[in-house]
Amino acid sequence: MLAVMSSYATERPSGAATAPPTTGWIGIIVFGGIMLMVAGAFQVIEGLTALFRDEVLLVTSEDLLIDLSYTAWGWIHLIFGLLAIAAGAGVFAGWLWARIAGVAVVFVATLVHAMFLPAAPVWCTILIVMDIAIIYALCAHGRDVRAG
To answer: Is the pTM of this model over 0.85?
Structure first.
């Protein structure tokens, strides 16, 4: 009788989807999620610097590719940084929308960093490299994370 009851407990209804097996690539998506949150935090710092300490930046805002005030640049960086942090948290939860949003946010953030490059060349170069690594991790192996 006990054997019959245990067989009922382990059987799945017909048509029930089984979760794909976890692969060894899970570390890459964890890396991507962590880096997404770290890059978001760095972008928040960059935004706060542009808002409150723009005298430490190398050029005037008129010398940037798009002529916006440092206040506008600060808000752009701050918003994208907070979106990246939220998407990184969603990646850890295994949400598909978070991976899609993470790639979109990081792609646009890469373009923003490229435009902001004259103001902080080393900082923006580091963030662009981080952004490329994040996009790779989320696109190439993001399917290995699933909501639990």
So the answer is: no
